Amino acid sequence: MGLERTLSYQFIKKTNLSLSRLGEREIYLEPASPYKSYPQAERIELKIKEIPETENFFNILAKRRSHRKYRKYSITLDEISLLCFSAQGVTAKAGYYLLRTAPSAGALYPIETYLAVNYSEEIKPGIYHLEVKTFSLEKLMEGNFGRILRELALGQAFFETASCVFIWSAILRRTLSKYGERGLRYIFMDVAHICQNVLLAAEALGLKACPVGAFLDEEFNEFLGLDGVEETVIYMATIGK
Ligand SMILES: Cc1cc2nc3c(=O)[nH]c(=O)nc-3n(C[C@H](O)[C@H](O)[C@H](O)COP(=O)(O)O)c2cc1C
């Protein structure tokens, strides 16, 4: 089969920017709110007490590797705070926009961060949503869901032994309403920036991480209560020691 017939090629082709079609729009979508929160949820304030001294940045880059063997390590709230800051911490304000540690196409920030905590003595195991505006975790479910996470990640055993798992979803409308179908390209770039920040931060903190793209999409959405249309899970990273 020729590559031209694949959905992937068609997508790239149809979302190319070209001078002859500049300004043409194939879809019109209402924008979505740039912030998500669970107002009823119990919340845990995240705090960066102090920025820790770490190894030289270039050594961290050289050392980063995907690790999948973790011991039962109780992750601290300080570590979680620094990892969440690396993912989506607000670092500046530009009018209406809250600029963050990771770049985002059009500063539209289509990515939401969920955190599954398996092992921690400082924060109850459970599923949390990161509320970016207040830099807090909103508790969605309590309990150790390691076994379920492992099943939803196609049996990848390290989901159960990880101290925590970052789960990133995309609110497609935030970006597609500005960029049309091409916006999907940007959404995946956005999430990769966020994930890489977390992978490097984990290394800097003496933790280990693994990015994960293989999981059961529909089942993961259902588990988190996401509809899979407006918001859908797209990427993850396990963190452990
Ligand atoms: C988009 C993406 C998806 C990935 N998905 C998985 C995965 O589902 N399971 C896994 O064990 N590793 C996954 N990885 C990690 C790769 O296997 C790993 O990055 C690669 O083997 C290179 O090794 P390194 O990260 O240690 O440099 C993924 C990496 C990327 C970038």
Give a structural overview.
With 241 residues, this protein is of the alpha+beta class. It has one domain: NADH Oxidase. The protein is 32% helix and 23% strand. The protein has 8 helices and 9 strands. The strands form 2 sheets. Strands 1-6-5-4-7-9-8 form a 7-stranded antiparallel beta sheet, with helices on both faces. A two-stranded antiparallel ribbon has the order 2-3. A hairpin with a 2-residue loop joins strand 2 (90-94) and strand 3 (97-100). Helix 3 (77-88) packs antiparallel against helix 7 (183-204) and helix 6 (172-179) packs across helix 7. The longest helix has 22 residues, at 183-204. The protein is globular. The chain binds flavin mononucleotide. The site of flavin mononucleotide has 9 residues, from strand 8. The site of flavin mononucleotide (FMN) has 9 residues, from strand 8.
Keywords:
241 residues, alpha+beta, NADH Oxidase, two-stranded antiparallel sheet, 8 helices, binds flavin mononucleotide
Strand order of the largest sheet: 1-6-5-4-7-9-8
Task: Return the CATH topology.
Answer: NADH Oxidase
Count structural domains. 1
Percent of sequence in beta strands: 15-25%
Which overall shape is indicated by the principal axes computed on the Cα atoms? Answer: globular
Cα-atom radius of gyration: 18 Å
* CATH superfamily caption: NADH Oxidase
